[in-house]
């Protein structure tokens, strides 16, 4: 982890704690080393930096390639381990980068829903995360983000002082069939979707952990 990454993470943590009264639950569940996919729900542009600052290990993040068009912004994003990917259509370069990072033992943040939820509710998973899991057999850490849709909803350019909570779930390894490589393409696609659905189920289940810790009004 570079000194610049540590410095920026420390600054973001101060901002997170003071301005958003940020709460971090069970960050110790993130494996301290080795490959892992941090799979989080997505409701705001604040989600990637907030999930990253809650981890004690270096993370890598996916970002729209259009955000890298400005040279200064592009440099900053790359210095924070952001990987440019195309939102529309297949992006083989981005896919290869994700696979390489996981095979090198990195932690990669992905949003199974593919894009921000329009209403703050959990959306169905896309098959992309299932394909990554199937190709790398990486452990998955479900992550639930609460409050960023109030802190910075769609159409708002400056964050509001709403409380934010980040909850990490127990890591798990999806049980892959031994003959996965021999399965027909349609069966493989169905498996990708099943993996994504299981990830979203575990993200949804993290609602209970926040309810236990939040006293009734």
Explain what this protein looks like in three dimensions.
It contains eight helices and seven strands; from the N terminus they run αββαβαβαβαβαβαα. It starts with a helix and ends with a helix. It has one domain: Glycerol-3-phosphate (1)-acyltransferase. Helices cover 40% and strands 15% of the residues. Strand 3, helix 3 and strand 4 form a beta-alpha-beta unit. The protein is α/β, with parallel strands linked by helices and 217 residues long. It is globular. A seven-stranded mixed β-sheet has the order 1-7-6-2-5-3-4, with helices on both faces.
Keywords for this entry:
217 residues, globular, 40% helix, 8 helices, Glycerol-3-phosphate (1)-acyltransferase, single chain, alpha/beta, seven-stranded mixed beta sheet
Task: Give a short summary of the structure.
This protein has 217 residues and is α/β, with parallel strands linked by helices. It has one domain: Glycerol-3-phosphate (1)-acyltransferase (3-Layer(aba) Sandwich).
The N- and C-terminal alpha carbons lie at a distance of 42 Å
Give the overall shape.
globular
**Helix coverage percent:** 25-40%
Mean pLDDT: 90
**Uncertain ranges:** none
Order of helices and strands: HEEHEHEHEHEHEHH
For CATH, the homologous superfamily is named as Glycerol-3-phosphate (1)-acyltransferase
Give the structural class. alpha/beta
How many domain modules? 1
The spatial strand order of the largest sheet comes to 1-7-6-2-5-3-4
Q: Count of DSSP helices?
A: 8
The CATH topology is given as Glycerol-3-phosphate (1)-acyltransferase
Q: Would you report the number of β strands?
A: 7
Give the strand content: 15-25%
Q: Can you summarize the main beta sheet?
A: 7 strands, mixed
**From the alpha-carbon coordinates, what is the Rg to the nearest angstrom?**
17 Å
* CATH architecture identity: 3-Layer(aba) Sandwich
Class in CATH?
Alpha Beta
């Amino acid at each position: 982890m570079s000194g610049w990454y540590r410095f920026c993470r420390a600054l973001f943590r101060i901002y997170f704690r003071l301005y958003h009264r940020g709460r971090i639950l069970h960050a110790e569940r993130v494996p301290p080393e080795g490959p892992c996919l941090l799979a989080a729900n997505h409701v705001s542009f604040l989600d990637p930096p907030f999930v990253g600052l809650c981890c004690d290990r270096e993370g890598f993040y996916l970002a729209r390639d259009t955000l890298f068009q400005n040279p200064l912004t592009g440099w900053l994003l790359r210095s924070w381990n952001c990987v440019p990917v195309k939102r529309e259509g297949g992006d083989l370069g981005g896919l290869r980068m994700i696979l390489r990072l996981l095979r090198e033992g990195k932690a990669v943040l992905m949003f199974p829903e593919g894009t921000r939820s329009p209403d703050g509710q959990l959306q169905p998973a896309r098959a992309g995360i299932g394909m990554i899991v199937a190709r790398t057999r990486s452990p998955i850490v479900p992550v639930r983000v609460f409050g960023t849709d109030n802190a910075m909803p769609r159409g708002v350019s400056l964050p509001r002082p709403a409380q934010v909570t980040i909850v990490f779930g127990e890591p798990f390894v999806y049980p892959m069939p031994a003959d996965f490589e021999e399965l027909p393409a349609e069966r493989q696609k169905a498996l990708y979707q099943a993996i994504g659905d299981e990830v979203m189920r575990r993200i949804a289940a993290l609602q209970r952990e926040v309810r236990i810790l939040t006293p009734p009004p």
